[in-house]
Amino acid sequence: MDYTDSSYDSVDSWKTIILLYNSALKEINTKLEILNDEFQHVHRYNPIEHIKSRIKTPESIVKKLRQRGYESTIENMVKYVNDIAGIRVICSFTSDIYNIAEMLANQSDINVLSIKDYISHPKESGYKSYHMIVTVPIFLSDGCVDTKVEIQIRTVAMDFWASLEHKINYKFEGEAPEHIKRELFECAEMVSDLDAKMMSLNDEIKGFAASESELEEQIERQKRAAERTLLKEKLYGEAE
To answer: Which residues contact 78 (CB under 8 A, 6 or more apart)?
Structure first.
């Protein structure tokens, strides 16, 4: 099935396209929830704080197409707008971002089209996040359609900053006063420092937990050894 052909420019095809994008969001959401559950099972903690998903509004899609010089057709929408279906994954720590991205990329039915690592290479504004454009197969009654989804993965602190930046840009229509831009950039640096300190603290806590676990295992081994020794002494004593 191919929904990029201009012959599909109709109300019915628009509804079908939205069905595909909504289905793609459900697929990715389910995959993320399963990965989060698996992480809890294996590592005893959840890397994902929460997940947000949305479908871009028709007005936003048309605006984006016009900005890029394209006509407002379904064919152009599917071909040139990569973030119609969007998922935002909010994590506890920076290391979780890369773990989740790697686990998603390793899924056999997910095809990674592009990656933008704004954590290693932040935007000039200070914006940080990890962006992936992927496709996931959606199986309908008459065939399969690979459907695009944009995935943004960031920490709680990064998400708070990005939310504030978005509100400021909306308020000033992208032309915020210079002093506000400077202060926003300074806040971005504070967010980076906070994320680094929180991850360092978490690593230290995990180190203590590992030491306690090793101590408990050592005590348990010593206990079992003592029980075996007592059992042998009892058996040999009875034999004599």
So the answer is: 3, 4, 17, 84, 148
Prediction pTM value: 0.80
Cα distance between residue 119 and residue 90, in whole Å: 14
Q: Which residues contact 187 (CB under 8 A, 6 or more apart)?
A: 126, 161, 164
Report, in angstroms and rounded to the nearest whole number, the Rg of the chain calculated over CA atoms.
26
104-138: per-residue pLDDT in tens? 999 999 999 999 999 999 999 999 999 999 999 99
Domain-by-domain residue ranges, the chain? 6-159
Closest listed residue to residue 100, CA positions, set 113, 86, 90? 90
Tens of pLDDT along 183-222? 999 999 999 999 999 888 888 777 765 555 565 666 666 6
Q: In terms of CATH architecture, what is 6-159?
A: 2-Layer Sandwich (3.30)
- CA dihedral of residues 213, 219, 222, 228 (deg, nearest 10): -100
pLDDT at 8 over 50: no
For 44-119, where are the alpha helices, taking DSSP H only?
58-67, 74-80, 94-105
Catalytic residues: 150
Cα 202 to Cα 212: distance, rounded to the nearest angstrom? 15
